[in-house]
Structures
1.
Amino acid sequence: MMNLKRLPIGRSDFKSIIEDNMYYIDKSMLIKEIIESGDVILITRPRRFGKTLNMSMMKYFFRNDQDNKHLFEGLKIWKKKEIIEKYLNKYPVIYLTFKDAKQEDFLTMYSKIKMIIRDVYDEFNYLLNKNILSEIEKKDYMRVLGLEEIKGNTIEEKRSNEKTMFEESIKKLSEYLYRYYKQKVILLIDEYDTPIQQSYLNGYYNEFINFMGNILGNALKDNEYLEKGVLTGITRVAKESIFTGVNNLDVSTILGKLFNDKFGLTWEEVEETLRYYGLEYEKEKVIEWYNGYNFGGKEIYNPYSIINLARNKGEIKYYWINSSGNALIKQLIRQSTAEVKTKIEELIEGKEIESSIDENLVYGDLDKSTEESIWTLFLFTGYLTWTKHTGEEGEPRYSLKITNKETLQFFKKTVVDIIKETKIELESIIQNIIIGKYKEFGIKFKKIVKETLSYYDISGEEPERFYHGLILGMVVGLSKKYIVKSNRETGYGRADLILIPKEKTEPGIIFEFKKYSIDFDKDLKDSAEKGIKQIEEKGYEEEIKSYGIEKIIKVAIAFDKKNVEIIVK
């Protein structure tokens, strides 16, 4: 029996995989496609789909300080002799990876970014000994390395100068390398959006985005020393001025055809892998569990799961979804609207949903609503796939479904758990009214409103719907003990929501929602008092009393956008 090649589990360094003769699925023709594409290329794919390995391959292909012919001799690109002669080991390469930039606050993230740039400067420190830098430039170079004091008369001035220096550092380095080699630079930036996503998750996004945007913007826009820039990430971060004004920009997302078979595995590559490791009998299960990704109309398989399957001799398991990286998804589900949660339940049942997809995802806008952002993020991170384009020409509307059995498990477990947690939390709030803790109800209800309000459109004609829906969500778990009647005719008018206990000893509850009127109400408290008065005057208690219930609790909730006043009697 032949000795099988080792699988590159946890390895993303191209050189070590080839030199150690490990199993490698040849994606080298990406180099040709990159050369033929725009001056700046942004590639977005889900995590663990081979982005870092492909960037590493390009680094070894282009860099001019090494002879790497031996790495490419057996690969498809080797047959393209013109490309080999013109491009192989012919360019200075600046390679940055932000994949480990996952700090929890601005200052430690700022320090981490400085350290990443410092390491790159250190790699080219031989430039200090060449006669290409002026004395001032040498001092600036030393400052980036942390070996020379930052200029400035005050601490604030020094901080400001340091920030500006790091924001311009990559562009400056490309200029120095151009001067030395008389050759423009290839700039490779892996996982550029990891620190941006972390800043959003940890609440310092607004503070951080300008710093990060300026580093990238300076390096990519009108940089006369740049031959080509390639960035990878999970999302295209827009409106942060990073790509605004970048000339000749090509963007490759999972919705487009560009590079659509170069990240993740095609069925032919999966078959080849299964055949090599004697696992062809697993074909059907592999299709069911790890298939389903649609990259620009090309059927793609999850490479991380396939490689782990081969290592574990065909054992079908949840490989990719157990490899972390879904904190943002969890947060968005937790804060999402009832409509989103309903659609998630439909997806779990195997149905498809339809949504507009915003390729220019803006982290800063995620707080402001939007269902579209949630489905876009689900799609770009690989938890959903698109089946067809349903919009008019040019309209980014798609049919979406859960990708495969592996991602279905994520929805069944993680998502359902989050929805359950939220329901339990909401139900506990309503219990405060039943047991007479009215103040506690008020405090917790206002907190929930503040946390979830931004995900609803309450500027429309019926902002009452938001509040009505929130209370309805709270009482839904009480259906064993209460008859819940929403917007029913009672007495002389219509109560917004009534709870009729099945046990006569328990209290009945009436909810009335009042929108603050600038013309008729003195303040929110006045609105709430009018709500109580309305319950009493219009005889909303009649239906509850007809069930033989004696104790009735009246709750008026007055609101003006996210400001709430509650009166309980």
2.
Amino acid sequence: MEILLEIGMEEIPARFLKDTLKNIENYIKKEFKDKRIKYSNLKTYGTPRRLILNINEVSLKQDDFTETNIGPSKKVAFDDAGEPTKACLGFVKSQGIDVKDLEIIDTEKGEYIGVKKHIAGVETKELIPNILKECILNINFKKSMKWGTKKLRFARPIRWILAMMNDELINFEIEGIKTELKSFGHRFFGSEFKVESIEDYFKKIKENNVIIDIEERKNKIVESIKSKCTKIGEKVLLDEELLDEVTNLVEYPYPIVGRFNSEFLEVPQEVLIITMQVHQRYFPILDENGKLLPKFVVIRNGIEDSENVKKGNEKVIGARLSDARFFFNEDLKRTLDSFVEDLKNVVYQKDLGTIYEKVERNKELAKYLLEKLDIKEIEENILRTVHLSKADLVSNMIGEKEYTKLQGFMGKVYAEKAGEDKEVALGIEEHYYPRYQGDKLPTTLEGALTGIVDKIDTLVGCFGVGLIPTGSKDPYALRRATLGIINVILNSKLNINLLDLVNKSLDIYEKKNILKSTREEVLIKVKEFIKQRIINVFTDLKYSKDFVNAIVEVDFKNIIEIESKLKALVTISKNDNFDDIINLVKRIENIAKNYQNTEVKEELLIEEKEKELYNYTEKIKIDVKENLESTDYNNYFDIILNSKGIINEFFNNVMVMEKDENIKNNRLALLKSIYNEFSKVADLKYIE
């Protein structure tokens, strides 16, 4: 048996389509599973005007089901004479059975009375109408609406519902909209048609110029652009996000090449590209060197070329590009420093002040960081980059909210036009990197350090005034900012003490009396937040999570050192004795975990093997200190690995829990002492 559902409606926003189809798929899969209906394949299709569900080889009836209901325990259900108690009779009555129908069922908790009921499956066709109706009623949209006098909320008004089981109509109704064996083709290049079977639907919908498969529409756009829209040496810039959006704006795509006045090319091509992509959903055309040509591709929702559509879009883009050129030229009449002054009038966040105040805090952090890193030669460049980093936010290009995607980039362009150092200009753009997962990272120290102090200020400030991410809500993108800090440090190999930087930021906020919680409370929360992001970054880099946990539980202030420690731990873990030494260390930890004293009294050392372990421990303390000071983590872990024999000898020959309290405590102190040496880089008990 095959099922088809098509929900016809006014055009829904492109961004809704894929999520809505996934919503339908998940709902139906759950319902079929809960109702024990088998099927072989389920597929969804969609256009802005219709949502389609197709299910193949649906079973004719539900699977039969045996239900087991457990009652009271056998001891409670029957008295000493074997007669049913009130508890037993109450259970029997609730199940609508006789005492003789009861079974004794073995469970983990013992013997209980119970009853097994065989429930025969009903025919699928009796269940399907309500399942499909409820599926429609339960579709969730980010935004929905009501229309007319109807109570149903949907993304856009529903105009028709086609529902079929093989070649028969599935009858149901939603607020006056009855299912029918008919559908509609393309709004302009199709017509209403009757549907005689599911096979007939797929044939006629194509004849009526609707491509219902999203991937097929997407591929048609790409192929038709390649075959119809470019000459030799030209390339259409196919942004994947825009391609997905355009695919879900049309039912049948047809590409048309338009042109604009080449005079607009005096504006930076990134501005023109953003204008075409974001505002008009056009695909720009580049030459073989990546330079923008005065041409674009617009995807028409139709089956043929149209001169009117071409001219209309050319007229619209001309007006858009005129605005962009005007904004750009007006901005060039001003200095970047004058833009910085205007930041005094732009509120960053009501408790954290203006963007100008944020920049001033960033400068103070940058001076501290430069001193710690001992970078003198580019200090002036770094501070200039910080000073100008937010200037373009009040430019016409960005401030008018038309080109917000270009923040940073426009700052770079204006800095170049003003004659700023090229590293400063590039740093202004790069301090926003990475903007999303997988984005590029800064190539300059100017961009890296400016970005780090900017993100640290944001993180500490938001936590300081209680703007802490919860669940999926993170309005100030603190997770992304923290991941950015970590990835930039790793990429730029910066030897930064992250917690010192956090504390310096707290100093600045505390001095300005901005914190709404105690400094200690904010620090604890920020540290935990950073630690979790560090774990995420290194596990994403394919390091074992237990290795990462073992290291960050000891110390996570220096990202570069964490990476070095992890590499050393990975290397040593390949040794045949690694598992044995880990188990020995865990044994030491289990024995001595509640004992804090590490002062060992030599006069209380009686057994030869505990004396040997003591002498060994005193010796490796020197070696451990030297290795940690020189950050030679490979040698450090070698020390631990080479301790297997002497620790085994100790456990094989010495009773730790001696009856004499003094001797016992001395041995615990010895174990605690060696455990502490073994835990200065990684807490090995976390390693599985």
